[in-house]
Amino acid sequence: MLVNYKGFEIDVRREESMGGDEMLYWSVFRNEDGMEMTSGLEYGDFYTVRGMVKHYKTRVDKWLGLSSKEKEEIGNF
User: Fold this and answer.
1) CB of 58 within 8 A of CB of 65?
2) Total domains, the chain
3) Cβ atoms within 10 Å of 5's Cβ, excluding its own
């Protein structure tokens, strides 16, 4: 599922890995400069695609609410 949210591209997918297992893959990029905010993968079916999209929307909202100084200290999500 690919979602553009408040200037960020959130991509979450459940796909079969090369080893044949179902994996959940995600990435979040800032549209203005293409900076990767986070990416990763999760084995198993504990998290849903929609649940992860919702989670990263919340993280984007929190990120946008930070001051410039706080963003510098954190570096990324």
Assistant:
1) no
2) 1
3) 14
Distance CA 15, CA 55 (A): 19
Q: Which domain does 49 fall in, by range?
A: 2-74
Q: Give per-10-residue mean pLDDT for the chain (77 aa).
A: 97 89 94 94 89 96 89 74
**What tokens does 1 get?**
């599922």
Contact 10, 28 (CB under 8 A): yes
Distance, CA of 14 to CA of 26 (rounded, Å)? 9
Which amino acid is present at 65?
G
pLDDT attached to residue 30: 95
User: CB 25: neighbour CB atoms within 10 A?
Assistant: 16
